[in-house]
Amino acid sequence: MGASQARYQQEYHDLVDKSGFSLEQIKNLHYRFHQLSGNNETISKGNLDIIPALEDNPIKSQIIDAFFDKRNQRQNETGSCEEIGFEQFVMVMSHFRPPPSPMTDAEKEAVRSLKLRFLFNMHDTGSDGTITLEEYRKVVEELLSKSEHMEEEVTKDIADAAMLEVASTNVPHMGPDEFYEGITFEHFQQILKDLEIESRMHIRFLDVDTTTMHCGKFSS
């Protein structure tokens, strides 16, 4: 028991340095991780799929997939995995950590870029650095899936029109016969340049509020 506790303590301190979370927050996340995993060392998509707060989220599948996308685990790898351990879980959660205050302009830009990259990866399901029209259509369809009177053809038209608008903004001199390959990360940053995302991108669907986490205080 003592050896196991010592191992956890060392792991906690290592994750504080890697993630930016406080020691107390790391402990809380470990508690929640074991709730989700059933006290196992890893969690699968099935463990996240049964979270009640995610049930009615129109992009539930993208949110869950994001946890198993190696790009979001800060390991400089691509691809996906079937299960993740606690460190991978924490590194994905760290994208939702409130930014430190005060921040320099360079720090603010770094935080913003990290959060935007996470959002971009959620929609770039092909991991090729571009959100294609097909990927964008899927997002729009899922976002509008709760609209009972919205026909599939209408959602397709909405996605196509939105992508055309993005193309005209990012490639204003594109010829009529040119094909717009999709949204690059640079385009994505430009599209969201007026969105204040640094302090707004939090996570609550795991019953963890990273803004106000306190030891042992969780919703079931």
From TrEMBL:
<dbReference type="InterPro" id="IPR011992">
    <property type="entry name" value="EF-hand-dom_pair"/>
</dbReference>
<dbReference type="GO" id="GO:0005509">
    <property type="term" value="F:calcium ion binding"/>
</dbReference>
<keyword id="KW-0472">Membrane</keyword>
<dbReference type="GO" id="GO:0032587">
    <property type="term" value="C:ruffle membrane"/>
</dbReference>
<dbReference type="GO" id="GO:0004860">
    <property type="term" value="F:protein kinase inhibitor activity"/>
</dbReference>
<dbReference type="GO" id="GO:0030027">
    <property type="term" value="C:lamellipodium"/>
</dbReference>
<keyword id="KW-0106">Calcium</keyword>
<keyword id="KW-0963">Cytoplasm</keyword>
<dbReference type="GO" id="GO:0005634">
    <property type="term" value="C:nucleus"/>
</dbReference>
<keyword id="KW-0449">Lipoprotein</keyword>
<dbReference type="GO" id="GO:0005737">
    <property type="term" value="C:cytoplasm"/>
</dbReference>
<keyword id="KW-0479">Metal-binding</keyword>
<dbReference type="InterPro" id="IPR002048">
    <property type="entry name" value="EF_hand_dom"/>
</dbReference>
<keyword id="KW-0539">Nucleus</keyword>
<dbReference type="GO" id="GO:0030154">
    <property type="term" value="P:cell differentiation"/>
</dbReference>
<dbReference type="InterPro" id="IPR052490">
    <property type="entry name" value="CHP3"/>
</dbReference>
<keyword id="KW-0649">Protein kinase inhibitor</keyword>
<keyword id="KW-0221">Differentiation</keyword>
<feature type="domain" description="EF-hand">
    <location>
        <begin position="111"/>
        <end position="146"/>
    </location>
</feature>
<comment type="similarity">
    <text>Belongs to the calcineurin regulatory subunit family. CHP subfamily.</text>
</comment>
<keyword id="KW-0966">Cell projection</keyword>
<protein>
    <recommendedName>
        <fullName>Calcineurin B homologous protein 3</fullName>
    </recommendedName>
</protein>
<keyword id="KW-0519">Myristate</keyword>
<keyword id="KW-1003">Cell membrane</keyword>
